[in-house]
Design goal:
Layout lengths: L2 H14 L4 H13 L7 H25 L6 H12 L8 H22 L3 H17 L6 H12 L3 H9 L4
């Protein structure tokens, strides 16, 4: 079929589509649904309860230490580890090393350039590069660098929490 024949066919197909709002919603929603298989109900319950328990544990540790520990990167890590544990970025090496490497990048950026959104953005990019070179991919850890640059937590209390150690 030549390109001269394809263009008129596409134009005819476009004109044949119904132009009602309902048809447009159906077309859009069918593209957003995805094709992933539905998880088993037990799997969903296990993932949600595990991730919620981890996040409640972080809140309890933070309350005991008077330091907020439930930071968005750790919440995202808990969600990934409990919902898709087979992914490389959900493996313990990637989670722990990724957060620690990104914390180091965040503190280095903070020490060198101070606290600003610009430094936080660059720190996230550099942190991703460091994790990639170290073969410890964990995308939520990039946000750890951002949190450090923007919130300037004390490294003596923050870093041991990332490593899973008590202060």
């Amino acid at each position: 079929m030549s390109t001269d024949q394809i263009a008129p066919e596409r134009e005819q197909a476009r004109q044949a589509r119904p132009r009602t709002p309902a048809a447009a919603r159906t077309r859009i929603s069918s593209r957003l649904v995805g094709r992933a298989p539905a998880p088993a109900p037990g799997t969903v319950l296990h993932s949600v309860s595990g991730a919620t328990a981890v996040m409640l544990g972080l809140v309890a540790i933070g309350a005991a230490l008077h330091v907020p520990v439930l930071i968005p990167p750790l919440a995202a890590s808990a969600a990934i580890v409990h919902s898709v544990p087979g992914l490389p970025l959900a493996q313990p090496r990637s989670v722990v090393a990724g957060h620690l490497l990104c914390a180091a990048v965040g503190y280095a950026g903070l020490a060198a350039f101070g606290s600003s959104p610009w430094v936080a953005a660059v720190a996230a990019g550099v942190a991703l590069a460091v994790m990639t070179m170290a073969r410890t991919p964990h995308s939520p850890a990039c946000a750890t660098a951002v949190v450090i640059v923007l919130r300037t937590p004390d490294p003596r209390t923050f870093v041991p929490l990332l490593a899973g150690r008590r202060c």
